[in-house]
Design goal:
elongated; alpha+beta; nine-stranded antiparallel β-sheet; 199 residues
Length: 199
């Protein structure tokens, strides 16, 4: 990789996240989202990246309102997201403030655009994280085999929510045998301020 300017790095990392959202085969399509629980313990999970809005510095993921991360995030909580593209040897990290929305225009639009096969996940009963005696999805045997109809899927809407992240810091790390390169960008309220860092 030829040496890049900070502006080029910033442009590149947003392009990578945007492509990651659109390309199911991209390793950035399913980054790791980190939160902290009430006892201060870190919690991480792989999530599907549903939207990247560079102008608003926002990322969107979908979640079940019954999941533990919903309580961890609430209306405003610090979160982190990390993804790694092994073919490019680039790690992308970001942090910001997240919130959960269930009854909002954003959530309604996200639900309307969701595939029926994706909606099926929210039909699980009991909800995510519930202890059970044997391995199970929470879906009935029939639900596991058949994609629900539009009408059938609407029963899952009360469990659906969006996780929105307002991004305030992004980091880029390029791994190279000859010497790594690292940059960080912080949002100052009006623009991104970048700096090179020793990896």
């Amino acid at each position: 990789m030829t040496e890049m300017t900070l502006d080029e790095v910033l442009e590149s990392l947003w392009q990578r996240w945007t492509r990651g959202k659109a390309d199911r085969n991209s390793p950035l399509h399913t980054p790791v989202v980190g939160t902290v629980d009430a006892s201060g313990k870190p919690k991480q999970r792989v999530m599907v990246l549903r939207e990247v809005n560079r102008t608003e510095r926002r990322m969107r993921f979908h979640t079940d309102i019954r999941s533990a991360k919903v309580d961890q995030i609430g209306d405003a909580a610090p979160v982190s997201v990390i993804g790694y593209d092994p073919s490019a040897k680039i790690q992308l990290r970001l942090s910001g403030t997240a919130r959960i929305e269930q009854d909002s225009e954003t959530a309604d639009k996200a639900w309307a655009a969701s595939a029926l096969s994706s909606r099926r996940c929210y039909l699980a009963n009991p909800g995510p994280g519930t202890a059970v005696d044997a391995p199970m999805s929470g879906l009935t045997a029939e639900q596991e085999l058949v994609v629900p109809s539009q009408d059938e899927s609407e029963a899952a809407r009360p469990a659906f929510a969006v996780l929105l992240i307002d991004v305030t810091t992004v980091e880029w790390l390029y791994l190279a045998a000859s010497g790594h390169r690292r940059a960080r960008f912080d949002w100052d309220g009006a623009a991104w301020r970048g700096t090179w860092l020793i990896p």
